[in-house]
Specification:
Length: about 500
Amino acid sequence: MRANYTENSQLLVVTVCLQLQVFSHLAAFCFVIVCKAIRILPSCCFYCRVMSDLNSSPKQTQGQMDLVYGLNDRPKPFIAFFAALQHLLAIIVPIVTPGLLICLALGVSAQETNMILSMSLVISGVATYLQCKKVGPFGAGLLIVQGTSFNFIGPMIGIGSAMVAAGTPVEAVMASIFGVVIAGSFIEMGVSRILPWVKRLITPLVTGIVVLLIGLTLIKEGLISMGGGYQAMSDQTFASTDNLIMSCTVLAIIILLNRVKVVWVKSSAILIALVVGYILAGFMGYLNFSGLKDAPLIQIPTPMHFGISFSWSLFIPMAFIYLVTSLEAIGDVTATSKISNQPVDGPVWMERIKGGVLVNGANSFLAGIFNTFPSSVFAQNNGVIQLTGVASRYVGIWIAVLLVILGLFPAVAGVIQAVPQAVLGGAVMVMFGAVAASGINILSGTQLDRRALLIIAISLGLGLGVAQVPQILEHLPELPRNIFSSGVATGGIAALILNLVLPETKK
């Protein structure tokens, strides 16, 4: 009798969640229609109420985006809510995915994984609020959404798994990870104060190589997820027919939805595909609600749940990634400024990127304290701004509130955690491939002369070589072995040194 009650409760939770997903998509669609109507109404009825809202926006000039609500406009509450919901649809999966992958790879318990995912949402909400509101030197004062960064997944899984294999308890590994996250955050906060010097040292060539290496090393993790993850490897079910059906179905749906001409469908393609994969996994009997059973009603943030420790082998590659993430944030803040009809050079722009990078670092510090992973500025929200025409930073405050509310209720994280890793693998394969493509895009914007090609060749060769054949380092002393144990760190250091040593070709 009790078992039937539990099963019925689980089914009820899933049904409610799915209904909420459907409602969210319908609400987002309604918001797009409303926005389009608002664009038309002023020309039909000059004296309508919407006109008064639009009058507060600056007049559009040549080359500017046609915005329904500008940066400092205050949309009515129901419009602001629907705009925030659209952003939430685009970012909620990327926010929780890095933490879920790391926890699954390292064997973190379901209850502690639930806590980490909940804190990812809360900390992302806090950072989003700071970016939009701008509190003192913290924040860019733009509609910027922040979430857990994909850049750190590779080193954390690679080095963390090696520590677990060597006999280190999982709790001690997590303590080392969060200690390094706290230490690395000061690098990013320091970078925000010396941005011009750092930009001269870490050029787009170096940044492109590092981002490309991050993407290429993550693809391995994507394939492991598609096959069912590390747990499937241990129980001999890796790459089973069921796992491949679930992962390939999600991947195929993402591809098909990106062929649909409706823009909001494209922007929510990953989320829609995961919902379909979630339903498919339920029919196949692969949903696991163990993380939901013992979850508390409300998740109270607990500082340093795992304690705090430090690992040089983990810190070295992450320190370099912190530098690169800072430079990525510059590009993301600049892009948001541009589509928000704000300056992209001069003192105002420089103040915005300094504040944006500072929040990146400060929020990573909070993430380490409250047991989650480093965060960064998300570029996804720029597409949503272009889609809706809403660039108001006050919408960002709504997004922040929604993220914090979702994070404080562990049932949300429990439902997300129930997704089989094979379902998640179909989505992360696209996300990780997009990281590599972003690196290629950065490199395409540089002049690829003989010098640049030589730097790329050597850096990629060393970085990917170490990642594939780590035995090459086994006879080195401990310190250099720790430094070069990550392919990203090896390739990044090589790119940085070669960029300084090799003279630039005179034009």
